[in-house]
Amino acid sequence: MAVQKVMFYHIAEASRLYKRLGSAKAIAEHCDEIKSIMPDMSARQCQALSTVPEILDECRREYEWCRQKNISILHIADDRYPQRLRQTFDAPLVLFFIGNANLNEHRVINIVGTRKCTLYGQDLIRRFITDLKALCPRTLIVSGLAFGVDINAHRNALENGFSTVGVLAHGLDQIYPSQHRETARQMLSQGGLLTEYPSRTNADKKNFIRRNRIVAGMCDATILVESAAHGGGLITTRLAQDYGRDVFAFPGAVGNPYSVGCNNLIRKSEAMLITSAEDFVESMGWTDDKTLSEAQEAGIERQLFVDLSDDEQKIVNALKEENDMQANVIATKLGMEISKVSASLFSLELNGMIKNVAGNIYHLL
User: Fold this and answer.
1) What is the pLDDT of residue 10?
2) Among 311, 318, 365, 364, which Cα is nearest to 342's?
3) What pLDDT shows up at residue 349?
4) What integer pLDDT is reported at residue 52 of this predicted model?
5) Using CA of residue 53, residue 54, residue 60, residue 65, what is the dihedral sign?
6) How does pLDDT run across 296-336, given as a tens digit for each residue?
7) Helix and strand tally (H, E) in the chain?
8) Which end of the chain is least crowded, N or C, by CB within 10 Å?
9) Cβ proximity of 272 and 241 under 8 Å
10) Cβ 197 vs Cβ 73: under 8 Å
11) Angle at 108 between CA 113 and CA 118, to 5 degrees
12) Exposure b/e, 109-127, CB count within 10 A at least 16 = b
C-alpha cells in the first residue's frame, strides 16, 4: 500500500518494479537502491520511493480502517484481483473493494457514456440489460456510478438481478455524487464498489480519467451508449482499444449531440455497431452461455405491443414514426378526438408501453 501511494503518477513503472522485485515488501526494503536495480527508473519516481518509510504509519492506519469497514485490500498478486486488469501494463498495484461481486466473473462488461443520458439512451440501456439477462445471466456489469449512462446501467443491472460494480475516482469513505448513495448501498449486496484510492482521497478531476482505465481494463468489452463528440466514455473506449478489448457502440440520430461520439466511432470502424443484446452476444461469441435460439424461444425477440385496440395501435404507430409528442399533437396528427387519445394513452401507460415525461409529452418505450 505504501508503494502504491507514492506511485500514482507512474503506475507503469511501479508495475515493472514490482515484477522485478516480486513484492511490495521487497520494494520497501530496497527503496534507497531503486536506481541501481532499475537504471531507467525516472528520478522523480526514485525520489518518491525514498519516502516509503515515512508513510508506513499512515498505511497501517489505512489498513486498520479497511479492516474495521470490511474493505478488502487486493494486491496485484491476489487471486481476487481482477485478472483481466492484471494483464494491462498500467494496472494498479493495490485495489480497495467492498461488496460481494466476483471480479473475475465468467463475463465482465462495462456500459459507459454521457452524463446527460437522453430518454433514447435510457431505453437502450433498459432493453439491452433486460435482454442480456436471458442470453448471458453470468455477467458482471461495470460502470462508474456517475450521472447519466453510468447510474442507469447500475440500476437496471440491479433490477435484472445482475451483479454490478461501480469503479470510483475517490476513497471508499465517501460516495460521489451523493445522490447515488442509496444505489451504492444496494450494490454492496449485489456487486460492490472498487477503487485504487485510499480513504480521504477526494474526487479530483484527474482521478476520473485514471479511473477509466480500471473500467476498461477489468472488462471483456466496452459498450458506449451515448456520447458527445468529447467525453469520458470516449476515453474509456480508447483505453479499451489500447488493451485489445472489444468496443461496441449504439448508433444514434444524425444531429443529436449525444450521438455524435458513438456515430463517429462506428464511422471510423473503431467500434462495432450494435442495436441489441443479441447483436452483442453474437459478436462476442458468447452463445455458449445460453443459445440464441433458446433465448428467442423464451421471448427475447418479443412483440412489444400485443392485443392493442385500433386506437392504441394508431398511437403506437405514430410514436414509432415520431416519438415524444403531446396528446393534442397526437390527436391532430391522427384526426382523433382528444378524449379517445387521452383514454388510449392512459391504457398504454398502464401497460408500460409509453411514459409521460416533462411537458406532458408521451414517450414510446
Assistant:
1) 56
2) 311
3) 85
4) 67
5) negative
6) 455 544 444 457 899 999 999 999 888 888 888 898 889 99
7) 18, 12
8) C
9) no
10) no
11) 20
12) bbbbbbbebbebbbbbbbb
